[in-house]
Amino acid sequence: MSVDHYENFPVASLLMPRRLRKPIEAIYNFARTADDIADEGEMPDQERLQRLDEFRAELSRIMEETTPLTPLFINLGAVIREHTLPIQPFHDLLDAFSQDVLKNRYRDYPTLLEYCSQSANPIGNLLLHLYGESTPQNIVYSDAICTSLQLINFWQDVAKDYAIGRIYLPQDEMEQYGIREEQIEKEIADDAWCKLMKFQVDRARAMMLSGAPLGSILTGRIGLEMRMIIAGGLRILDKLEHAKFDMFNHRPALKPYDWVIMLANSAPFSF
Questions:
Q1: What is the pTM of this model?
Q2: CB within 8 A of 93, min separation 6: which ones?
Q3: Which DSSP state fits 236?
Q4: Do 204 and 151 form a contact (C-beta atoms < 8 A)?
Q5: Which of 229, 237, 236 has its CA nearest to residue 254?
Q6: What is the CATH topology of the domain spanning 104-271?
Q7: Angstrom distance (rounded) from CA 87 to CA 226
């Protein structure tokens, strides 16, 4: 899942085995810090890209077995070595964050999926390596879950993203349903908008369900966490539908009672 998903699915610290909490924290700190470089503050774009390049240099130091320059990467390097984590997912995340600096529209769905493959899927890949469960089929399931979570986050936060100049809805699909950017600016959830968003929600739900078998393949607390993550994503989609896709005035978020429902829906083979 992408970094933003921890807003809606903060279960790792509660359900994750203690032995995995520090490595996951190191991965999260890397991703969160890099994401903040791309998104937060008033830095010029060139400075943001330069700082992300400094992160790439630190990853190179880890690969070359030389000491990184910062505590964040000293800690991350120890985790990578101890758990034999692949380095490419970290580079993929940095590429996605660099793209966030430079790109704020996506012409079609395949282009959006390509972005998700770098912004979301690497987290799931790294977690599977930590679990010792990184089989080819599990990675396929994980990619489906992570990309779906990224899409769900986009549809939940259409207004929030537009406020910082970004639209993740594929441009050709907006045109197909007769939606112009001005409609997002004016926060109009009319019939055409509902049809577009129903299409997006149905597609994200189908993708999530295609990855759901991973929740039963993984065992113990790890499996329960995965099923909770899946249930959380599906719950947000249900809330979007219930709000008639008016995320402008009714942004869906998980409440305490939702966690009870998610837990009830998190038994193996319940999806």
A1: 0.90
A2: 30, 31, 34, 118, 119, 122, 123
A3: H
A4: yes
A5: 236
A6: Farnesyl Diphosphate Synthase (1.10.600)
A7: 23
Distance CA 120, CA 116 (A): 5
Q: Each residue of 185-244: pLDDT tens digit? A: 999 999 999 999 999 999 999 999 999 999 999 998 889 889 989 999 999 999 999 999
Give the contacts of 151 (CB within 8 A, at least 6 positions apart): 112, 116, 200, 203, 204, 207
The Cα 118–Cα 111 span in angstroms is 11
- In Å, how far from its chain's centre is CA 167? 16
Nearest to 7 by CA among 258, 232, 267: 232
Q: Structure tokens of 174?
A: 């907006």
**Axis-axis angle for helices 88-102, 45-63 (nearest 10):** 170
Place of tokens 């039963």: 216
* DSSP 8-state assignment for residue 5: G
pLDDT digits (tens, 9 = 90+) for 80-134: 999 999 999 999 999 999 999 999 999 999 999 999 999 999 999 999 999 999 9
Q: Are 264 and 234 in contact (CB under 8 A)?
A: no
What stretch(es) of the chain map to CATH 1.10.600.10?
A: 104-271
